[in-house]
Write a structure and sequence with these properties.
With 207 residues, this protein is α/β, with parallel strands linked by helices. It has one domain: Metallo-beta-lactamase, Chain A (4-Layer Sandwich), CATH 3.60.15. It is 22% helix and 31% strand. It is built from six helices and 14 strands. The strands form three sheets. Strands 1-2-3-4-5-6 form a six-stranded mixed beta sheet, with helices on one face. The chain has a six-stranded mixed beta sheet with strand order 7-8-9-10-13-14. Helix 1 runs parallel beside helix 3.
Length: 207
């Protein structure tokens, strides 16, 4: 049985998600944020065995602890190919704005299409949802959509940063609208919601 844990990581309150199999303890980490120690402490407490680290996009608040996680568990990093340049450019990943320009090691896996991928314990579906950044993705596991900064409760991600495009994010929302209404949306910041609630309350889903 799959379970999901989340940790609020860093000063920008990023939701880091850990999806794991209750029996094997194998795990996927999504967006570790800035506080790698906090994420590692949770993994160690649950005795988990991470298999892969996934970034929903390349902004620093979601990725700054990538390297400490990868070093600790010797696991690959996956990101969409259109955001890979952000890892190696402190201006594009915006770590310069906090006075700590950071270069993050190159990813190992590059998403380039909408597809179903597999780990040893589960399948996950990658949906390219550009708009917040060029390579933003959402990750669907069972009925849970890990949405990064594409959609929040009653709102959407900002589009005024590098790679952002308002028209593109509105188009990306059309992909999300096609999922079942009971789909649980786990955003990159803020509270969880459901697609049913967002279809009713989120003004950006009806443009």
């Amino acid at each position: 049985m799959l379970k999901t844990e989340f940790i609020v990581s860093g000063e920008f309150q990023v939701n880091c998600y850990i999806v794991y199999d209750e029996t094997s303890k194998k795990a996927i980490i999504i967006d570790p944020g800035q506080d790698g120690k906090k994420v590692i402490d949770k993994i160690e407490k649950l005795n988990l065995k991470p298999e892969i680290l996934i970034n929903t996009h390349g902004h620093f608040d979601h990725t700054l602890s990538n390297d400490i996680i990868r070093q600790k568990y010797n696991i690959p990093l996956a990101i969409h190919k259109d955001d890979t340049e952000m890892l190696s450019d402190a201006n594009k990943n915006f770590s310069t704005i906090i006075g700590s320009p950071t270069i993050i090691k190159k990813a190992d896996i590059f998403f380039d299409k909408e597809e179903t991928k597999e780990t040893s314990f589960c399948k996950y579906y990658v949906i390219h949802t550009p708009g917040h950044s060029k390579g933003s993705v959402c990750i669907l596991i069972d009925n849970i959509l890990f949405a990064g900064d594409t959609i929040f409760k009653n709102s959407i991600g900002r589009t005024d940063l590098y790679g952002g495009d308002y028209d593109e994010i509105i188009q990306s929302l059309q992909k999300i609208k096609k999922f079942p209404p009971d789909t649980i949306i786990c955003p990159g910041h803020g509270p969880f919601t459901t697609l049913k609630q967002e279809l009713k309350n989120n003004p950006y889903l009806n443009q």
